[in-house]
Design brief:
40% of the residues lie in helices and 16% in strands. It is built from eight helices and nine strands. The strands form three sheets. Strands 2-1-9-8-7 form a five-stranded antiparallel sheet, sandwiched between helices. It has a two-stranded antiparallel ribbon with strand order 3-4. Helix 2 packs across helix 4 and helix 3 packs across helix 4.
Length: 348
């Protein structure tokens, strides 16, 4: 009788490996099959959802309709302005419906003059509480010759609301520099900064703010708008700057005042009149519903105004830049606002 020999260990190992491979392959096939089923169910569900649009099917028809998503924000088409407008750069904005109704060369580079002060005012409202005091000092030396001023003198102390009125009503370049130096030191947290360095910190903050609000066609080099080749904007950007300033109730209140009189915390009596003819009832350019904003003029900028109006809750902003005369800017601002409210009435 022959003696049976045992299989070598290597053969047994190969057999076990083969069985494991078969088991793994089988498991993978099962997984693939399950994934295919799940994928088919998901695709079927998505197709069904898209085809029905989550809307009930009307009538007996089995055909599905796809409904497009539409915005709910009311908008008006751009209006056709019939009034003769001679100012080179214009924008009319319906603030209530967030719609630009009319524009003319709104992206052309130009100079803002004292319209700049709307950004200075917005930053003052943002960074200061109502009781914060501003002391007039040596920064008055930074005010350029022939500037419009609020007749501030060294040693005057003003609250935030007072300095805003000094800035916005008589268009005080002196007030602009008092604000810039005060806030520049506050931003830098360094009271030892020189007037020039503190003003530079503030102007840098102005430019940061321009980028934040999307006014990418603008660059400012001072807080008051005095002409400089690298201090420029566009009419479209001035609309963004105006909208930014109108966020602040204190700015809205200030721009709407025809005149103010104060006794300052330092004891002096001051009075300022608003240069905006649209809110002056005795002006031939008085506009019913006008609520102020800002004027500006330099030889390079021409005659400019940003006009804000609120008539029965309907808000409009007109930007007029580069007028050849003061009368031209007022006439075009009134014409634009009239066109805006005519469009508003036709849609109400």
């Amino acid at each position: 009788m022959k003696k049976q020999t045992a299989r070598p260990a290597s053969a047994r190992r190969k057999r076990r490996l083969w069985k494991r491979r078969i088991a793994v392959i089988a498991l993978l096939l099962i997984i693939v099959a399950l994934l295919a089923v799940v994928g088919w169910l998901l695709i079927r569900g998505l197709v069904q959802a898209v085809s029905t649009g989550d809307e009930p099917v009307s009538g007996a028809s089995s055909s599905a309709t796809v409904q497009e998503t539409t915005t709910t924000k009311p908008t008006y088409p751009t209006i056709s302005v019939t009034a003769p407008l001679t100012t080179p750069r214009l924008v009319l904005y319906d603030m209530t419906h967030d719609t630009v109704l009319y524009s003319k060369d709104a992206q052309a580079k130009c100079y803002p003059a004292s319209l700049t002060k709307l950004m200075t005012a917005a930053l003052t409202a943002e960074l200061c509480g109502p009781e914060e005091e501003f002391t007039v000092g040596t920064e008055l030396s930074l005010v350029q010759p022939l500037s419009s001023t609020a007749s501030l003198q060294a040693g005057y102390r003003l609250t935030r609301d007072m300095i805003l009125d000094a800035l916005l009503l008589p268009s005080g370049n002196d007030a602009a520099y008092v604000i810039a130096v005060h806030l520049g030191r506050k931003i830098a947290q360094d009271e030892t900064l020189s007037d020039v360095d503190a003003a530079r910190v503030f102007v840098n903050r102005m430019n940061d703010e321009l980028l934040e609000i999307g006014a990418t066609g603008s660059h400012f080099s001072n807080p008051d708008g005095y002409y400089s080749p690298d201090h420029y904007t566009t009419a479209g950007d001035m609309l963004l700057i105006a909208k930014n300033a109108l966020q602040y109730d204190i700015v809205r209140q200030s721009i709407g005042k025809t005149s103010v009189s104060y006794v300052l915390p330092s004891g002096q009596s001051v009075s300022w009149d608003n240069s905006n003819q649209l809110i002056n009832p005795s002006s031939p350019y008085y506009f019913e519903g006008a609520a102020g904003m800002k004027t500006g003029f330099t030889d390079e900028a021409g005659h400019c105004v940003v006009a804000y109006a609120n008539r029965n809750g309907a808000e409009m902003v007109a930007v007029v830049m580069g007028g050849l005369s003061s009368d031209q800017r007022w006439a075009d601002a009134v014409a634009l606002l009239n066109e805006g409210y005519a469009a508003e009435a036709s849609h109400s």
